[in-house]
Structure formats: structure tokens, C-alpha cells
Amino acid sequence: MVLRLAADAVLLVHLAFVVFAVLGALLALRWRWMALLQLPAAGWAFGIEMSGRICPLTVLENRLRAAAGEAGYSGGFVEHYVLPVLYPAALTREVQFVLALGVVAVNAVIYGWLVFIAWRRLSASGRDAPAHRAGR
Fold it and tell me: What is the mean pLDDT of the chain?
């Protein structure tokens, strides 16, 4: 029972990581320092998808499930609703490339917006600064 709960916890952490890698840049719109965590996460997700390797969280989860005596993902909310999101049945190399490019595209748009906002603020603050007069 404990191993199954641990496997479910790893699965939920995995899902949270995927969501953070894809959409975590939205948090950087509010907290700029979040980019220091999110960009490496997005890079990792991109790298895993492009390389075709298996994420270490998947390996850990499968080992925990095997140790718990489970052969697959049957029954329960987590298995029924969360697993298909992380492990779609039609996951091919081509789909992995699309997912990798999706991670980059979503993050590029969000960070592009963040840079645009910062640029506008800097431009606006430069116009509002008092002009210095020569000779004073």
C-alpha cells in the first residue's frame, strides 16, 4: 500500500513538473525569479522529448509500482485521469517532437511578453525622467 501511494505521489509530481515546464513561465509574469526555476525545467522537458529518452520520474514510478506488485495502471482516480495525460496511447517520435516544440513555443511567447513588458516599463521610465539642463 505504501509503495503504491509513493508511485501515485511520483506520478502527481511528474504531472506538476510537466505543467510547470510548459506553463510555469506564467508565474514569471508575477515573480521574475521564477524564471530561474522554470527555464531549466522547460529545457529538461524539451531535451527529454527531443532525445526520446525516458524521464527518471517515469522510471522511479514504474519501479515503485513493480515493487508494490502492480502490473499496470488499473483503477483509481490517478490512474484513470492523470496517466493518459502523461502517457498518451498515441505517443510516437513525431508526437514527441511536436510536444518538444510546443514547450518551446509556449515559453517563447510568455517570455517574449515578459521582455516586452519590461522594455515598455524601461521606455516609459526614461521618458518620465527629468531632463538635465546644461550648465547647472
Answer: 82
